[in-house]
Amino acid sequence: METNHQIKKWRFLCGFGNINDRRKQKVLFEIKDYKEIDEYGERSNIIYFETDCDSYESRFLTDIYFEDHMGKGKSKILNEVGDWIIPKDGSVGQNFIKVVCSLKK
């Protein structure tokens, strides 16, 4: 299952079929394609993140930024694991976690 959303400046695709179960956590990715080159000279990115389905927390694992559309071209990789965060009640982030955690592999 996957979803594709478009917003004025970018569109993103999240591959729910690529969710990996690890204990009560799920690791997945999101690819974002920009309509225009951003201020850093990039046109797309892939972000891997982890969600804890017990606590409803998420954190970023790896960010990869590309010069071309849909994850193509030269890339820059940031392997900085972020802090766990809890999205605000009713936010898109919280609703996204609910969907991700409801999916079975």
Any overview of this molecule?
This protein has one helix spanning 92-102; strands spanning 2-6, 10-15, 20-22, 25-34, 44-52, 57-66, 75-78. It is mainly β. It has a single domain (2-102), classed as Lipocalin. Strands 1, 2, 3, 4, 5, 6 and 7 form a 7-stranded antiparallel sheet that branches. The chain is elongated and about 35 Å long. The model is unreliable at 1-7 (pLDDT under 50).
From the alpha carbons, calculate the radius of gyration and give it in angstroms: 14 Å
> What would the principal axes of the Cα set say about the shape?
elongated
- Going by CATH, what is the homologous superfamily? Surface-adhesin protein E
Mean pLDDT across the residues is 81
User: What is the CA–CA distance across the termini?
Assistant: 11 Å
- The CATH topology turns out to be Lipocalin
Counting helices, strands and paired strands, the structural category is mainly beta
Helix content: 10-25%
Tell me about the largest β-sheet.
Answer: 7 strands, antiparallel
Which series of helices and strands comes N to C? EEEEEEEH
Count every helix, treating DSSP H or I runs of 4 or more residues as helices: 1
CATH class label: Mainly Beta
Which architecture would the CATH scheme give at its second level? Beta Barrel
Low-confidence segments: 1-7
How many structural domains can be distinguished in the coordinates?
Answer: 1
Number of strands: 7
- Our estimate of the beta-strand percent is 35-45%
